[in-house]
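Predict the holo structure. Ligand: flavin-adenine dinucleotide.
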Amino acid sequence: MSVEIHAGHDLSGANTLGLPCVAERFAAPRRVDELREVLALAGHRGWRSTLLGGGSNLILPEHLPGLVIQPSMDRWWIEAGVGDTVRVHAEAGVDWHGLVMALAGRGLWGTENLALIPGRCGAAPIQNIGAYGVELGEVIESVHLLHLDDGRESVLGADECDFGYRDSIFKRELADRVAITRLVLRLTPTPRPRLGYGDLANRVGEAAPPLAVAEAVCAVRREKLPDPAVLGNAGSFFKNPLVAPEQAERLMDEHPMLPHFFQPDGRVKLAAGWLIDQCGLKGRREGHFGVHDRQALVLVHFGGGSAEELLAFAERIIERVQARFGVTLEREPRLAG
Ligand SMILES: Cc1cc2nc3c(=O)[nH]c(=O)nc-3n(C[C@H](O)[C@H](O)[C@H](O)COP(=O)(O)OP(=O)(O)OC[C@H]3O[C@@H](n4cnc5c(N)ncnc54)[C@H](O)[C@@H]3O)c2cc1C
């Protein structure tokens, strides 16, 4: 076995919520064949495998049994494309934000609005990361996979990934069945700024290069979101709920200020942060956790708390929003183990 398996590995510093966690075993394969090797070992020994990226969208329990695998293949490269497009290959362990800034710095358009989203490339397609009017699915050409059960490799085209709002096939049919090993993105050197979201257009002009757009996105995000290095959090803790048009209409009658966004499929997206705020919960602290005082969608960990306490706190928020608006909020970060 060329990959080291560490017993009793502390993951408390490896998740942005800062939850205390010890993995029974841990491995960080740096090549696809090493990843296949550790998966085969886990299968042989009957260890449950848990995949870990940057730990920015995970709720970790105090003890994580089995084997935690953090794919750490970290190469990326640009392949000359046909015509106006450029293909970018990025392995699972590449830091997402670092890649975005490097590509924007090379004058390539497509991922600049997704700057400063924490985590690694391997996890990015799972919830189809999105921000400032852009979703990853718009620039993905294909996703390379390793199947956990038999070590087989396969490639899914973007259409087959079935991307939706914070959703993809990797959260459904392929949940816990594959490891993502590489992304292939399709970018372009032809300017195509997407400045229609938030106040981006006030910060950068239409003629700005992609790096200036990415830097503007970083500036807005730093103003609004707590830095996990300072205050534990997993970004948005709840998804923005999608409701039927009749329910949205009823709610708009009762609450004329309700922010709402009509979706192509007829449903209406509501702002979960606004709903939480209206329940008087913005800035509320209970025990070791709280609702962030500038962004009610973000739950923060002040230290010393546990996954159980966090989930119970989240449940109370869900109940309050349900009682007031009849809308059920859904958690965004995934539960490990
Ligand atoms: C401050 C902050 C801001 C954020 N802002 C945004 C935002 O604007 N938009 C957005 O969409 N998200 C946002 N997020 C959420 C998060 O950054 C993304 O979901 C990110 O893609 C998670 O990457 P990760 O490497 O940290 O994954 P992890 O949290 O480590 O894992 C997430 C899930 O992916 C699985 N996984 C990890 N790697 C692999 C792999 N190689 N193969 C298969 N499964 C794998 C894990 O098992 C887990 O289920 C934010 C989070 C934080 C803390």
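The pocket of flavin-adenine dinucleotide is lined by residues 16, 51-58, 71, 92, 117-120, 122-124, 126-127, 129-131, 179-180, 225, 228, 233-235, 334 (CB under 6 Å). The two ends are 25 Å apart (CA to CA).
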